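Q: I'm writing up a methods section and want to include an example of the input and output format. Could you take the sequence below and give the corresponding predicted structure tokens, formatted cleanly so I can copy it straight into the document?
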Amino acid sequence: MKLIKSLKIAVVAAAVATGSIMSASAQDNTLLGAGSTFIYPLFSKIFADYAKTGVKVNYQSIGSGGGILQLTNKTVDFGDSDAPLNEEQAKKIGVPVLHIPMASGAVVITYNIPGVSSALKLNGKIIADIYLGKVTTWNAAEIKADNKGVNLPDLPIVVVHRSDGSGTSFIFTDYLTKVNGEWEKRVGRATAVNWPVGLGGKGSEGVAGLVKQTPGAIGYVELAYAKQNHMPYAFVQNKAGKFIEPTLASTTASSNVELPADSKVSLTNTANASGYPITSFTWAIIYKEQNYNGRSKERATQLVKLLWYNIHEGQKECAPLNYGSLSKSAVKVAEKILKEATYNGKAIL
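A: Here is the clean output for your methods example:
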């Protein structure tokens, strides 16, 4: 947690100092973003590098739901979400927005089971049943069946989930909806759902912290958070019946798909036999028409240049932080979408 917190302080120092997000009409060499905690470790590195160009980025890791709200309120230049806008969110914004894919990443199932050091094997039905409150102890027969030889204790499972509107939660519940019929009927997929059981933690940092300090806990966080905090995570069974370790290779395998023109696609429960099944793209979201709220053309241009950098030079930072970089075809889709951004109706790029 110390690494994540120190990164966070470095990237959003100005916002923390004032206690609130700065207005998007601030000086044009400081761009403002907010949203996904899923992408935060990657954005931290990319934006630190980009500051060398003279343009700073203050990014608040407040969850996808918070980022979309800030974008809707026009208090940031871009939001970032691990789920495309839903119908209600799009209606509230009321004008066209663009979804630009940034990278793909894996959501891992992490746990704190004293005395168990080996990676557990879990399938989607069991994970959903745990979050439904149906499987309540670590030595339950359903878990033991796929973990022969592992000395699982008679310890209550403490379910941990996100308390805020979260793209990570959307990815997780999107997966559970696809693999467990009861979950689909009772809970469904969304950035915020009515969790049947469990404790809520704010942000990926909050979930990771609760899991680390609570014996018997289970939670879901982005792969980078688990690695940076030295947390164990499960091999999850995919559609092909294989238990897959979440790695850069298995994340990339899941995200190696042809993107539609608007880039909106779900990667969970991949059919790729070597793909990890709880994987997703994350999207930077901006207004298509950039002349609003007195924004200057220079500011709009700086924003588009930043996102152009993210999908090109910034991709070199993906692999070291265990994110899947955009494929060549995905970069072409992202380029085309960015070229749709306008100022006074004229293309910025």
